[in-house]
Amino acid sequence: MEVKDYGLSRVSGRVLDGPTNPMVTPLLTDLYQFTMAYAYWKAGKHQERAVFDLYFRKNPFGGEYTIFAGLEECIKFLANFKFTEDEISFVCESLAGSCEDGFCDYLRGLDCSEVELYATPEGSVVFPKVPLLRIEGPVAVVQLLETPLLNLVNYASLVATNAARHRFVAGKSKMLLEFGLRRAQGPDGGIGASKYSYIGGFDATSNVAAGKLFGIPLRGTHSHAFVSSYMSLDEIVEKSLRSSDGSSSCEDFVSLVQTWLNKIQWSNSLRNVFGETNQSELAAFTSYALAFPNNFLALVDTYDVMRSGIPNFCAVALALSDLGYKAVGIRLDSGDLAYLSFEARKFFCTIEKEFGVLGFEKMIITASNDLNEETLDALNKQGHEVDAFGIGTYLVTCFTQAALGCVFKLVEINNQPRIKLSEDVSKVSIPCKKRCYRLYGREGYPLVDIMTGENEPSPKVGERILCRHPFNESKRAYVVPQKVEELLKCYWPGSSGKAREDLPPLKDIRTRCIDQLELMRPDHMRRLNPTPYKVSVSAKLYDFIHFLWLNEAPVGELQ
């Protein structure tokens, strides 16, 4: 079997890797893309210059904003777009015996050198109808790009938006950890969720592969299985632990832990708060601390949080403190998270006051257990002492909405604008090659996104411009922008020689997302009944849309 070399392609003098997932090849598409490409070729239309827009029609999750993600993978796909002989043979066999040899020769020479791709920068806040991508090139090859580009953008943007919504509800000060790998839709879903959750505002992931691939910070401690695997303290054979500065050594760390547990149990403030703790749990915590004295964070709900987990954790943490180490904190994975976080914090405060261990009251409390937007919101309303949230299933599966629903529509061919009509007005496309701008008001907030024809003059700061709803005649407003930002930039010039935008590092994309969300007006961001953001067209483009609509719509006849 022939193996495709997707290793490296050179773009504008720079070496660019292939897509993260090696399954992203020219065959990752729908059959009808090949049937159309063949029909274009057969009719001699395959080289006609076409323009397609990739956009979505409605913001997800009942909100009024979306985060655009997946651009880097799209560019990597274009840079490495090339058929192998094995793939060409399979395509021609799949076309029901009607495929001529000349079409195989055409596929053999096909790449994206004649394609240009313009895009909104990855990590941007985006809105319905405004193109995320504009792809120009020979109609047959651009048609072959449709399905893979939609596949690379749809889920990426959906999960980045979901992550941003979780970040908005949790607040800026809380740490958000993506814990969804085991519940994600396969390996690709797991890797993608980690990457795009990070873009959307999460701080770290448990996914080791994503950490290696993308440089995302890793977080994780231990499971209930680790705790329940221990039966007693006698299982701990290696009991010694050197102090953090290396100046001394504790030969029996287990005894030090037991001493501290006894002190806690009989202290003035905590006497009679708890009785005998689970000794197998204490053994597990002690063993874990011996392995990771600089990063000790314990899962405390295997048996009983307040009667066992918290006291056992504190005993180990205090023993570590004697040797110059600082424990990280605890994780709660069940129960009443708000109540338990308050009780745990009170316990930590008592320890600090009772034993004079500075900073003990600030132990990090992490909560997990099928969290989502609603539970985060409920916790905020109840009040809680949680510092970090581990979120998995509802984040990575985008449980409340299965797909974003991006579409890929022809808007121009051979310099002739095209329109797609529908009885459902929301499905009517906006024709012609367009330029897209974001207009900002006096307070620095974005006011409106406006699309214009390619050759129309750009909106100017301080000059009044009429913004019209694309399809509703009565919805229109004048805007005097204080700042004008052009949205679409060239990320893949092909062989055109045009200047190309660099692909930024993942951290910069994440920063862009956070900064863009900061700029949004609060009423656009709220969870319930957010104010819709305005998307408009210029007066000239509005007139042209409706002229073309009337021109293309058949005229009925009454009998």
TrEMBL record:
Pfam assignment, any one: NAPRTase_C
InterPro entries referenced in this protein's UniProt entry, alphabetically: Aldolase_TIM, N/Namide_PRibTrfase, NAPRTase_C, NAPRTase_N, Nic_PRibTrfase-Fam, Nic_PRibTrfase_pncB, Nicotinate_pribotase-like_C
Reactions catalysed: 5-phospho-alpha-D-ribose 1-diphosphate + nicotinate + ATP + H2O = nicotinate beta-D-ribonucleotide + ADP + phosphate + diphosphate
Record-annotated Nicotinate phosphoribosyltransferase N-terminal domain positions: 27-154
Pathway: Cofactor biosynthesis; NAD(+) biosynthesis; nicotinate D-ribonucleotide from nicotinate: step 1/1
GO cellular component: cytosol
Domain Nicotinate phosphoribosyltransferase C-terminal: 433-544
Coiled coil: none
Entry EC number(s): 6.3.4.21
GO biological process, alphabetically ordered: NAD+ biosynthetic process via the salvage pathway
Keywords tagged on the record: Glycosyltransferase, Ligase, Magnesium, Manganese, Metal-binding, Phosphoprotein, Pyridine nucleotide biosynthesis, Transferase
Cofactor list: Mg(2+); Mn(2+)
Protein's UniProt keywords contain NAD: no
Classification via Gene3D superfamilies: Aldolase class I, nicotinate phosphoribosyltransferase
Gene Ontology MF term list: glycosyltransferase activity; metal ion binding; nicotinate phosphoribosyltransferase activity
Record note on modification: Transiently phosphorylated on a His residue during the reaction cycle. Phosphorylation strongly increases the affinity for substrates and increases the rate of nicotinate D-ribonucleotide production. Dephosphorylation regenerates the low-affinity form of the enzyme, leading to product release.
Function: Catalyzes the first step in the biosynthesis of NAD from nicotinic acid, the ATP-dependent synthesis of beta-nicotinate D-ribonucleotide from nicotinate and 5-phospho-D-ribose 1-phosphate. Helps prevent cellular oxidative stress via its role in NAD biosynthesis.
Stated family: Belongs to the NAPRTase family.
The protein's name: Nicotinate phosphoribosyltransferase
Organism, scientific name: Manihot esculenta (Cassava)
